[in-house]
Specification:
It is a single chain. By secondary structure, this protein is α+β, with helices and mostly antiparallel strands. The chain folds into three domains: about 210 residues, 3-Layer(aba) Sandwich (Rossmann fold); about 90 residues, Beta Barrel (Elongation Factor Tu (Ef-tu), domain 3); about 110 residues, Elongation Factor Tu (Ef-tu), domain 3 (Beta Barrel). About 20% of the residues lie in helices and about 35% in strands. The strands form five sheets. Strands 7, 8, 9, 11, 12, 13, 15 and 16 form an eight-stranded antiparallel β-sheet that branches. Strand 12 and strand 13 form a beta hairpin. Helix 1 packs across helix 3 and helix 2 packs across helix 3. The radius of gyration is 22 Å and the shape is globular. The protein starts with 6 loop residues before the first strand and ends with a strand.
Length: about 425
């Protein structure tokens, strides 16, 4: 068997109606990943529901349903082969529950397409999406300006949205001049997998070509093995199968592992019995791979979403408290000491309390503006001390950037995002 192309996890993010699923569905269809008759079925279904034109979106949504029914392990993801990569597409939902999934999605992504609808332009959520991508460490972002068919494929409409998005990119520290903007119609298929004939003024790549323009992800195989658990399935004949992405390191069959924090916070020990990826049994898997595994000695009640499967010799710390650098994105008033929102870190969700606001920092220069500020407001960046109100597995940015980043959520919105810089371990 030929050596597989390197895997690149790509997330599509953007406002709820920007047309992410349609672009992805169109691409899967145009590249032959979805068969003609499957597409016809979805089209009939779309018309029956009074949603003509939604058939491409149904390609991804159908996967979500199957995923909810837990039919097989890797249906949440779709594969596309490009010239250079094997692309795994993570479809992040656009709205309310968006961020929970988006955080899971973005924390797994090597590259992202921010999808913006040309008629609607920048939406309030656009800034939030960019901050999250930034904080989750997604450095490679391309902007797909979609629904160009709805603005008569006009170049000035494209440029107006491009200018607005460029301002936001600058705010979050992404250079607009290094960012590719694509003029796209997911519905009509312009510049998705095929070059458009309706926009002769557009000289850039298609979405399919853009995948290959993203730099190849560097795999952190040299760091200790960490696999945050995303779901746990019971599979007949195999048993308990935790599923997730190996963030760092290499996992081997026979490896001694520890599941942390587990139900008790003490963790539970086991040994990797099987590793499966895309229905194939492997003897080892590495950072970047989405796998389902079975661990000898670990049953259904021992492991849940949010636990981290680690190399037993180098376990992830469980923290008593930690210091982090955060950016406040979207707080309704101000963030002060004593505030206890929910922290989303890798796949875990743990309430944590802000116990000290150490210093406010200028996001552009990193210079300290103010020691011990009384409160923080939107746009502020600060160093803070935090105490988890439950068991939290976390590492510092220095030790493992992949398990150091988090988002802060409250009442259905992302309040802040950040990364851990120092920890005090639980005794």
């Amino acid at each position: 068997m030929a050596k597989e192309k390197p895997n690149m996890n790509t997330v599509f993010v953007g406002h709820v109606d920007a047309g992410k699923s349609t672009i992805v569905g169109r691409m899967l269809f145009d590249t032959g990943a979805v068969a003609e008759q499957e597409m016809k079925k979805l089209k009939d279904e779309a018309i029956k529901h009074g949603k003509a034109g939604f058939e491409f979106a149904y390609v991804m949504d159908k996967i979500k349903e199957e995923r909810e029914r837990g039919v097989t392990i890797d249906l949440a993801y779709r594969k596309i082969l490009t010239q250079k990569y094997q692309i795994t597409i993570i479809d992040a939902p656009g709205h309310r529950d968006f961020v929970k999934n988006m955080i899971t999605g973005a924390s797994q992504a090597d590259a992202a397409f921010l999808v913006i609808a040309a008629p609607a332009g920048v939406q309030p959520q656009t800034t939030e999406h960019l901050w999250l991508l930034r904080t989750m460490g997604v450095k490679n972002v391309a902007v797909a300006i979609n629904k160009m068919d709805a603005v008569e494929y006009k170049e000035d409409k494209f440029n107006k949205v491009k200018d607005d998005v460029s301002k936001l990119l600058q705010q979050v520290g992404i250079k607009p001049e290094n960012t590719q903007f694509l003029a796209v119609s997911g519905l009509k298929g312009d510049n998705v997998a095929k070059k458009s004939e309706t926009m002769p003024w557009y000289k850039g790549p298609t979405v399919l070509e853009q995948f290959d323009l993203f730099p190849q992800p560097e795999l952190p195989t040299n760091l200790p093995m960490r696999m945050p658990c995303q779901d746990v399935y019971e599979i007949t004949g195999i048993g308990t199968v935790p599923v997730g992405k190996i963030e760092t390191g290499i996992m081997k069959v026979g490896q001694k592992v520890k599941v942390l924090p587990g139900r008790t916070g003490e963790g539970i020990s086991g040994e990797v019995k099987t590793i499966e990826m895309h229905h194939e049994q492997l003897s080892e898997a590495q950072a970047g791979d989405n796998v389902g595994i079975n661990i000898r000695g670990v049953g259904k009640k021992d492991i849940a979403r949010g636990d981290v499967i680690c190399d037993a010799a180098q376990p992830i710390p469980i923290v008593e408290e930690f210091i982090a650098q955060i950016a406040v994105i979207n707080h309704p008033t101000v963030l002060a000491k004593g505030y206890t929102p929910v922290f989303h870190i890798h796949t875990a969700q743990v309430p944590c309390q802000f116990i000290e606001l150490i210093e406010q920092v200028d996001p552009k220069t990193g210079q300290i503006i103010k020691e011990n500020p009384d409160f923080l407001k939107n746009g502020d960046v600060a160093k803070v001390r935090i105490k988890p109100q439950g068991n939290l597995a976390l590492e510092t940015q220095k030790d493992n950037p992949y398990t150091s980043r988090f988002a802060v959520r409250d009442a259905g919105a992302t309040v802040a995002a950040g990364m851990c810089i120092e920890i005090t371990k639980k005794k």
